Amino acid sequence: MTVTKPPNLNLNATLKENTTTEVTKKPKSPSFLVTKISIFLGLTLTHHQKIRTSNMREDEQQQLQTAEELMQQLRSKATELLLREEWKESVQVYTQFIGLCQSQITETKQEASQLSKLKKSLCLALSNRAEARSRLRDFDDALRDCEQALKIESSHFKALLCKGKILLSLNRYSMALDCFKETLVDAQASGSLETVNGFLEKSKKLEYQSRTGALDLSDWILNGLRGKCPELAEYIGAVQISKSEISGRGLFATKNVEAGTLFLVTKAIATERGILSGENSNENEQLVMWKNFIDKVMESISKRQRTRHLISILSSGDNEDEVEVPDVSAFRPEAEERRSSNEKLDMGKILSILDVNSLVEDAISAKVLGKNKGLYGVGLWALASFINHSCSPNARRVHVGDYIIVHASRDVKAGKEITFAYFDMLLPLEKRKEMSKTWGFHCKCKRCKFEEGMSSKQELSEIEIGLERGIDAGNAVFRLEENMKRWIVRGKEKGYLRASIWSAYAETYGSERLMKRWGKRIPAAEAVVDSVVEAVGSDERMLKVLIEGLKGSSCGMPEMERPIKLGKGLYGKLVKKQALKSLLEI
Ligand SMILES: [Zn+2]
């Protein structure tokens, strides 16, 4: 899967300078720490304190601050930074404190009471550092801090609460739920009962959603899509990854589903959005967005082992036939994290992976709901990127916040590959061939094969050429319908050919003049829409024809069943009827 990227984008060169991250592990010898920390404090303390520290350094270098005094100072500094929400700085000071505290604990001659005091301080510091780290989205490290704190004190309230919040951010709902249940024991005493109950409810809701895929956006939609978008859970429905006849690996349905059924809900590894000025948007704007997007992906790779693992599973466009077929469960947020980090991921490979797998939100097979509508958005949704292109696609996607929701755009049988249209499928074969060329592949889907087989039919190309030269759309429709009878074209294949000159059908059904002339000689709009939807899935242009037809009909109550079914194919079963009607404006 490829997104349109500005040309001459020398990503390799621009990015390398920004992505070298140095990780220095600090030695833990107390004397080293004390010196280091004094310097650090000298830099971050207030002016008044700075003078005091330096004066002290001058006269009593040796007995200077005892470890205890230093710890005191570090602790209040760290707390202050935490309260000021200066997360990065607070992590630094807590790290100094924790190092010092640990070295004190391991010193042999500690009294029992002193030791337990130190352990208490350590536990709290670890929980606080976890909080600050999670604010920096450094979830792996934050989680490790919580676990370390809980090893010291298994029911430490702050550590448990923080762990639960992190697990929730990582979409590990059932683990978060367990964690909040444990937190509940001490919630009353710490005056946080309401907070904990809130998290508990949220985890329950999301855990249920992640098992069932039963998400409902009705209220949000009926409220005019205002406010924060609803909380969504990641979900993997009846799908699996297998070798694809189209290209490399693909996503397949494992059971029969009807239009609108959810296949998956996935949160982006990273997204970047912006406003592009006009149609011929400035190349620089796109370049900056891409650069930011890649930076975000790199940050996530550096912070999260799971991101690194998931990205390494994705295709880089090479050796498509030899790549491993991963189990779909690797994409579940609660899947066991791989501890090894041997996956080879250099910058060049990451860029190829992003090139092949990133998606733009505003695409022919997508709907963007909420505040991101109208923005140019690019993102990486790991599991969704296994979905290949077809000119008779059976899936569409809805973007809500950072989530992608993929659903069936028509009924899909078990074992069928799930496909999107990467480009407009309501075009004749030749036009589609041009499009697929710009995407860097040659489409061999069933519809393309069928239409290639039909290309010897003179009448077909005459109709297409005629349309380009501006012949009467009704005439083109009439001629195609008559010829299909002659050629004995049946079932889905009829839908394929109709989809190829769909614009002529839409123009005819939408024009009173053309309908007066051709209406009685061509099939009814509903029948044609049905056959095209069966062949290429739901699309709003077909829905428009249906709805306009209904509005124009004078026969009492309009028949809503068809548009509702099409609407489900368009938006998925995310919404109850009333909300769907409001989305479709009917
Ligand atoms: Zn095709």
UniProtKB/TrEMBL annotation:
Keywords: Coiled coil
Annotated SUPFAM superfamilies: SET domain (SSF82199), TPR-like (SSF48452)
UniProt xrefs under PROSITE patterns: SET
CDD domains registered for this protein in UniProt: SET_SMYD
Leader sequence residues: none
The SET domain, residue ranges: 237-423
Coiled coil: 57-84
InterPro entries in alphabetical order: Gramillin-biosynth_MTr (IPR053209), SET_dom (IPR001214), SET_dom_sf (IPR046341), TPR-like_helical_dom_sf (IPR011990), TPR_rpt (IPR019734)
Superkingdom of the organism of origin: Eukaryota
Protein name: SET domain-containing protein
Native source organism of the sequence: Citrus clementina
